[in-house]
Design a protein that fits this description.
The chain is mainly α. It has one domain (24-49, 57-137). It is built from seven helices and two strands, in the order βααααααβα. Strands 1-2 form a two-stranded antiparallel sheet. The longest helix has 21 residues, at 106-126. This is Probable phage antitermination protein. Keywords: DNA-binding, Transcription, Transcription regulation. GO terms for molecular function: DNA binding.
Length: 139
């Protein structure tokens, strides 16, 4: 269940979430969720990756929908970075493979993916959303 977090008493800092773990779990959720279609992104390399059931952890539907809303906002503001998030977290494509496929430097891919992760993390923070998985993945 998605909860709006309460203000922390003065002097206490809000624990920081590990956005990469959040996106990893969201990616499993998004890939397994039949209501969401990222096939246009997958078209270029769909045959390269065998379909297997994931052994990675997923998130609950409430968390998935919250993160998905932020990822959708990323798509409307920074499409190229959104594409990196989908390739890396939904289709589990390595940063190196993405760089090779796009004929770009791997360092540039890493930087752009970090920007995308920061965007999603900031979006969740601005909406003051507390995820169910937060207790498990805090830094």
């Amino acid at each position: 269940m998605m909860r709006i977090s309460k203000n922390f008493p003065s002097g206490q800092k809000k624990p920081r979430r590990n956005i990469q773990l959040v996106l990893e779990r969201w990616g499993v959720w998004a890939k397994d969720n039949s209501g969401i279609d990222y096939s246009s992104i997958a078209a270029g390399f769909k045959g390269l990756l065998p379909y297997t059931t994931s052994s990675r952890l997923s998130c609950c539907d409430d968390d998935g929908l919250a993160v998905d809303g932020c990822v959708s906002r990323l798509k409307s503001h920074r499409y190229d970075e959104w594409e990196l998030v989908i390739r890396h977290y939904v289709y589990n494509q390595s940063k190196r493979a993405i760089a090779r496929q796009q004929k770009k430097d791997e360092r540039a891919i890493r930087i752009n993916l970090q920007l995308a992760e920061g965007f999603v993390d900031g979006c969740l923070a601005m909406m003051d959303i507390r995820l169910e998985m937060d207790a498990e993945i805090q830094n």
